[in-house]
Design brief:
This protein has 147 residues and is an alpha/beta fold. Helices cover 54% and strands 10% of the residues. It is built from seven helices and four strands; from the N terminus they run E-H-H-E-H-H-E-H-H-E-H. Strands 3-2-1-4 form a four-stranded parallel β-sheet.
Amino acid sequence: MRKFVLDSSVALSWCFPDERDLYAVHVKEAMRHCEAHVPAIWWLECANALLMAQRRGRFTSEDWDLYLRIMLSISILQDTEPQNRRLAGVVALARAHNLSAYDASYLELAVHLNLPIATLDDRLRAAAAQAGVELFNAEPETRNPQL
């Protein structure tokens, strides 16, 4: 089974029609056959982004319920290692690549688990490439027709 680290930018794009992205759609489809790993901050980051969007009038409280169901339906594996054990690595990556600690937590998890990362964040993509972390290939598999 393929595994990868899922950045919140991908999952949140599923909730906002004006932020839909073909790569994110492919990631969502791939999740039926893959394991998505996230740092502990993932749930809070997603909830905060949805709350801020609602406060800015991007959607209604009924939409909030729908988006919350979308987020809760995602099959993910949350990192269970205590965050204080990851802190030094997160801070080092944040400093080295000029990332927020939040974004660096995704990169650190990908490095630690030796997994590719799925993200829509350009800065995180560049940092991942510099750190030797591959971008998750979410393209649908094409099968050769039998002759």
